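Example 310.
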Amino acid sequence: MSVKLKKSNSANKLQKRIRRETGKAIADFNMIEDGDKIMVCLSGGKDSYALLDTLMYLQSVAPIKFDLIAVNLDQKQPGFPEDILPRYLSELGVDFNIIEEDTYAIVKEKIPEGKTTCSLCSRLRRGILYRVAQELGATKIALGHHRDDILETLFLNMFYGGKLKSMPPKLVSDDGNNVVIRPLAYCKETDLAKYANHMDFPIIPCNLCGSQENLQRKNIKMMLQDWQSRFPGRIESMFTALQNVTPSHLLDNSLFNFMALNANDHEVLNQIEGDTAFDPIDISPIFEDETTLKRQDKIDTTSVSIIELK
Ligand code: SF4
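Predicted structure in complex with iron/sulfur cluster:
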C-alpha cells in the first residue's frame, strides 16, 4: 500500500528528515544487517507507527535485504479496539502477528488498587515480546523510542537512580537471546507527533489500562521543554553530549583508571583531554543566551554557572 502522506512541502520535509535521521542511527550503531528479520513492536502509539512506516521505506531502498514483521501485543485492556491494527496492517501489506495475552488481569490481581501498575505490566510485556521474537525467528526487536525518551531516561536515572545512564540505541536483551534496536533514537518527539498527524495513523490511546501517567517522567519532560523554550538548542546540546563522553573527566573509577594516573605517563596523557578548568571555554551562542554572550568575548567556567542560575 502506498503511504498516505498529506501533501505539503513541510510534510515532505518532515518525512525526509525522519527517514534521514532513522537511516543515520541505523548506520551509526549497525542496527540492521543483511539477512536480519526485524520484529517491529507496534503498540498503536504515534512512535511505533512512524517506526514501522520508516522501516518499510528504508527496506524498499536499502542495498541490503532484511525482513520486517509487525507484532502487537493485545494485553486485553478494557476497550482495546481489536480491529484497528489488523485492518491497518493488512492494508499496508506487511507481515504481522497479533499476540493475545491477558497481562491486564495479572496486573490487576497482583497490584493493589491505586498503586502504579506500569512496572509489572512492562516486565510482563517485555518477557512475552522476547519469547515471541524467538518463536518468530526474529534476529532483532525494534522499539519506537526516540531522542526525547532517551534524554528523559537519562535524567530519570540521574535524579532517582544515581546513575549516569540512558536508553541505548542497541542492546542485548536481559535474557541474552535478542538484540533490541531503537532506530528512532535521533528523531524528535515533536516531529513524530506531527508526522502521525500528517499520516493519519489510527492511534490507539495508551491509557486504556486506567493507569496514571508516570509522574516522574512527566515532570522531567516538562523540565526539558521549559529549558528548550528558554534556551533554544539545549536539548540538541545535551543529546550531542551523550555521544561525546569523556570518562577521564567524570568520577567513575571503573571507566577510567585514576589510580594509575601519574605525571609524565604519556600513554595516559594521550587518552585524556587535559584539564581545561583554568582555560576560557568556547560555547557556541546557539546553546546559551545570545544577549549575554554578546557582552562577553569569552566566558570562563564561573560565568557559565552564573548564566545557568539566572
Ligand atoms: S500505562 Fe498501562 S499499559 Fe502502559 S505500561 Fe502502564 S500499566 Fe501497562
